Task: inverse folding
């Protein structure tokens, strides 16, 4: 089951295990470069940094909201 479906029909299932705790902390650091955040978010979503950066802004917000919802409860059982 996917975590999110983008407007273009791509289904996204986040794999939070693709990043370390250090990288997650860097992701939420407001001073980190945007490109670094795009790469980390994309890695968990199965997208590359360019695909993340090219999303329409509302889709990007939907992606980040779904990512952080999953990141808050990484051990929860989806079933």
Result:
């Amino acid at each position: 089951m996917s975590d999110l479906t983008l407007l273009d029909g791509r289904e996204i299932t986040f794999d939070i295990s693709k990043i370390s705790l250090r990288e997650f902390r860097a992701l939420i650091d407001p001073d980190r470069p945007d490109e670094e955040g795009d790469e980390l978010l994309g890695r968990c979503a199965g997208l590359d940094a360019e695909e993340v950066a090219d999303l329409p802004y509302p889709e990007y917000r939907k992606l980040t909201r779904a990512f952080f919802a999953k990141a808050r409860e990484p051990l929860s059982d989806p079933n």
Remarks:
- The chain is about 50% helix and 5% strand.
- Strands lie at 4-5, 11-12.
